[in-house]
Protein 1
Amino acid sequence: MLEKYYVGSSTLRRYRIGPLGKYTDALAARLDEQGYTFHSARTLLRFVSHLSHYLLWRGVSDVGQLRPEHIQAFFKDHLPNCSCEGPNSGTFSAMPAAVDHLVKFLRDQGVLCGFESVEVPPDSVGGMLRRYDHYLETIRAMSATSRGLHRRIIKRFLDARHQRLGDLKLEELTAGEVLDYAREALSTPYSSASKTSILDCLRRFLRFLCWERIQSRDLSRVVPSVTHWKLADVPKHLPIEDVRLLLNAPSTSTPVGLRDRAIMMLLALLGLRACEVAALKLEHLHWREGQLTIPRAKATRQRSLPLAPEVAEAICKYLQNGRPKARSRAVFLRHRAPIGPLSSKQVSTIVRKYILQAGIKNPPALGSHVLRHSMATCLVNHDVPMKQISDILGHRSLESTYIYTKVDVRSLNEVARPFPALKEN
């Protein structure tokens, strides 16, 4: 595969020298498959060849001998004083990206298992987060997205403790220290939902410490709860006119515009979550039956929804004229290398971009969930039964759907009574 990027026989021979040389052809094929441009792929392959020659000079003749110290020495000691590439050969700004690609590729090939032999100390912040993540995945069966949220919040807690004490010493953690951190979280200007999330993550981490026998007591019981009345909030939604404006914002003359419009049609007309859109695969589209299978998300079960003609047309145009060629079965892909499935965060970012671009005045929210709320609110205002709305949204309980009854303007107008006129004297 190197022949696609290099012609000279001496160059090809040089790129296949060293412990990484026998993997460069397969790496080149992978870069081509992921949609990297000709210039970008050549740059990454040149840097991999550079590293391979350096490792050979260091006495590393096989990838199995590669260790993190070799990579660190390459960046710290060799590159600042490098002359093996010739004078004025350019900068090495893309070298970290090249090494990241290489390491991930070799791990996927199963030839770099020993690279992880240098473990992070288990009692350090990074080591504790790794242990906690393993617990959330294997014991709590938590999704990758939820685990990421827990890691971010607990990292702040651990960093603050490490900065204050110089060490974690979690076995010496006291109820008073937990309460102090909880009070600090409650005093922040965050929303009640954010505060609840922070304290829930802290509570679960304290249970993990008890599970691992790091703490002899379950300190999660001392974490206070955020006062929040059930169904107290009104769902943030857009008027139907703004939703139409938003759906017409993407340019259907470009592949990216076709993708973004299909995504927002799914969010606005079927009420899908961002994670459900990101998880859609080609086999979930049942064209003959006119149905769409929604993968399991959060606590909901897999469900099927009718594939509305407008949504089907938008997806079909994207698949025919906008979707990049890739082996991935995901419906929606990134259009920049590495080509692959979109994440739920990227789906929300797309919606945010068009809300700002469409010039919607005072939007109540900028994420993808505002379209889900808008669809549900529209159904309530058009007298659709609550059970049907709950089924469309994939709620396990009707109680989760009842919040939309507070935006039923038509019913509220009928309930409201005119103010009694005052009798004139």
Protein 2
Amino acid sequence: MGRQSFRGKKSIMAKVNIFISSTCFDLSQIRNDIMQCIESLGHHSILSEQNGFPVNPNLSNVENCINAVKKEADIFVLIIGNKYGSILESGMSITNTEFMTAANKGIPVYTFALKQMTTLLPMWERNPDADFSDVVDNKKVFEFLLDVRKKRGIWNFEFEKAQDICETLKVQLSNLFHEALLTRHMILSSEISELYSKISSKALSILLKKDESYEVRFFLQAMSDEIDSYKDLKNDYRYSVRIKSANFLHDFDQLVKWMQHKFGQAQNYISSLNSLTDAFHFYYADPGVPSDIEGLYYVARSFAKIYASLLDWGIDVKSTIVPDEYQSLLTALADIPAEAITQIENCPKDSLKIVEETNQKVKSGESQDGAINLNLEITISEEAIEHYNEELKSLKDKILRQASEFS
């Protein structure tokens, strides 16, 4: 069955929902013309003034607009005129907020700006304190346009009349359709046909484009994505959220044996991480030879799994209940993998920067050598181990003195 249309009818086939975002009153005719253009192409248009606009009566106007972008919009069309509109508590207008929501959602965003505004923008940049009240209702509309055009780097089309927007949309939607067909063909006809459903859009895009160093960039992006999937677990670790059944260790000898076991576990995790470096080199082929993409994904995912195991390890240690006099030793043990956890988190992002910088130097002619040297080695902090040993020795000495005094 097709999705429910905005006019209360069930479509035979699912249609593309295109959200039109702009101030309403000053651009009402343009909005209506664009709606008709979109409908004539066989798509659904979503406009807040439509009777079929999805409204939850328990939500505010802004919340309903944001929900429509989040839940319904497949494509987002932003039209910036010379009005900014009412400012919300957030300091942004509804249109600005809708745009931010669409950008964060990651759907295709096409932006249009009134030619008069793009002409005035450089003048406002040179003299932002000048009086533009005869043109705009609020100078924040210039800030909004600047954010779209320069800070975010989103392509921005100029328009003078609705027909300009309609003609541009026809071309851009055709380009989008062609790109979707090409992507579909590449996925179905390549080795990533089964892999694509497991990886992020960023990782998939790297595989499809096959730009410079795409295999190592895919590996690092996949690792970053897999690590990010454990954000909640990292927060539990960071804030010492003790959600597990706690161990209770009151006997010193019992505590020492348990700590030796936990210390060995941590060392095994680190050793496994470094073994994965060998696995990476096995799956990552020499230049000119295709790498094993599935194998690289296995390594990236395994890095993240061990990362999660270290976080679980830390939570388990922090959750253990010991007498007060043993607490400093327990804390010292819990700190042992902290540096390794940070290294794992930083590894893919820092390495991606190295790859991009290397490729840029080659493109600019600054370097002829495109070799990329990545360090995937993860270590336990020697300082943390030394602190743990000092705490253990101090506690042992204290217990021996107490035993001697008692005897």
